[in-house]
Amino acid sequence: MDALSTAIGLAYIFAAVLFILGLRYLGSPATARRGNLLAAIAMLIAIIVTLLDRQIVGFTWILIAIIIGTVIGSFSARLVKMTAMPQMVGIFNGLGGGASALVALAEFWRLSILSAELPLDFSITTLLSVFIGGLTFTGSMIAFGKLQGLVSGSPITFPLQKVVNALLMVAVVVLGVLIAGFDPSNILFLIVTLLALTLGVMLVIPIGGADMPVVISLLNSFSGLAACAAGFVVQNHILIIAGALVGAAGLILTQIMCKAMNRPLSNVLFGAFGTGDQAAGAVDAGGDKSVKAVDGEEAAMILGYAQSVVVVPGFGMAAAQAQHAVRELSELLQKRGIEVKFAIHPVAGRMPGHMNVLLAEANVPYTLLFDMDDINPEFPHIDVVLVIGANDVINPAARNDTTSPIYGMPILDVDKARHVMIIKRSLNVGFAGIDNPLFYDPKTLMYFGSAKEKVQELVAEIKKL
After folding, report:
1. Is 112 in the same domain as 22?
2. Are residues 216 and 337 located together in one domain of the fold?
3. What is the CATH number of the domain that holds 418?
4. Both 388 and 417 in a single domain?
């Protein structure tokens, strides 16, 4: 028995090391796949060792659950579109938080039946797991609904909303104190669970679609914290370690995202900012504003005879599934001796790293991808910037208009290039819900249409040059 305990302990340590290495490798697109594989192996080891450690008598239902989960996960991963990847991440966050809450809930019920008095530390960790996990579950489902278009991307607010949220939090704290210190009642515990589920909805519905990347990152952190608390509940060391790693990584990423938008987390959560995607409509500059529109032949001439081109991808590229056509365009330009680079804004798309994932799927070399801080000094020397479906991350109002809601947000300085070409379906606003003065700049050329169709048209026209 001692030998088995030692082997189990060593296996847990090995799994923990793999989790840390996996997280380390996930920090770079070049090593992300290796990191994902290492983390998956670590989780497999952790599951097998836990089943041996806890001396499970019957494996029937466990095997059935593993088979069902494997089938659903395999088909989902293969069938889900890259444009829907943020929604899938949101569901993962929610299911992780929900699972942690269910584990804590089941353990509380089990021990409350055996004893009328529960240890204080057990009660606190159980309450934390249920509260954070329940909030994460419903909050993630709302985030999924907003990204999927099932729920309005605009902030959903009502009078005294913050007061109601504050009262819900006070109720959770009061009931938590009663449960931990006086009455470990199953009824009170169920009420706390329902309040947590309600609070998850209430906290996410007033957040606009423009802030969904930050929300996903924060909920990812919450799912890790819920798992960490559940690890204390069931006294599983590897669950504590894995949950803590996910929670810390999510919080760090959330901080990076907020810094990229120059907004504090409190403003993201309570600012009710952004309107969500607007339907494509007619080209209308509005008032006395005018734009310069080009056709495929003109656009190809400008790109084909440039010396340097920077491509700025946005959600429009993802929505049109244009990443493969973009790769073909970049290769064609490089064959003509043109220097091509890709500029990636930290919050482009609908989740952290969204553009990196899409371009990696299309086999765009990692060496061509540049972060905002690295590429911004180069824009004044760039001949043409090709913007594909991006809006808010290139809006110069963030630098120049003190009245703009995005004022102070770091952006890609594409307006400093010699020429700017923007592929966009229309002049409608993006997720932030504000107009972009760059569209009306004399150096800007608007190339209206679906990203995939227009990039393919560019490829065909440049081949004729």
Report:
1. no
2. no
3. 3.40.50.1220
4. yes
**Residue 312 and residue 276: Cα distance in Å, rounded?**
20
Count: domains in the chain = 3
| Torsion 433-437-443-447 (CA) sign | positive
Angle ∠(114,120,173) on CA atoms, nearest 5: 110
Give the pLDDT of residue 457. Answer: 93
Whether residue 284 is contained in a domain is answered as: no
Q: Which of 62, 79, 96 is the last residue of a domain?
A: 79
Whether 115 and 7 share a structural domain: no
Query: Once rounded to an integer, what is the mean pLDDT over residues 225-233?
Result: 93
Predicted model pTM: 0.78
- For residue 444, what are the domain limits? 292-464
Least confident among 45-49, 220-224, 331-335:
45-49
Contacts of residues 252-260 at CB distance under 8 Å and 24 or more positions apart, as own/partner, are 253/217, 253/220, 253/221, 253/352, 254/214, 254/217, 254/218, 254/221, 256/346, 256/352, 257/213, 257/214, 257/217, 257/346, 257/347, 257/352, 258/214, 260/345, 260/346, 260/347, 260/372, 260/409, 260/410
Given 33, 53, 79, which residue is the final one in a domain? 79
What backbone torsions phi and psi does residue 369 show, to the nearest 5 degrees? -90, 130
Mean pLDDT of the chain: 85
Query: At CB < 8 A and 24+ separation, what contacts does 229-232 make?
Result: 229/100, 229/104, 229/125, 229/126, 229/128, 229/129, 229/132, 229/133, 230/100, 230/101, 230/103, 230/104, 230/129, 230/133, 232/121, 232/125, 232/129
Flag whether 297 is in a domain: yes
Positions annotated as catalytic residues are 392
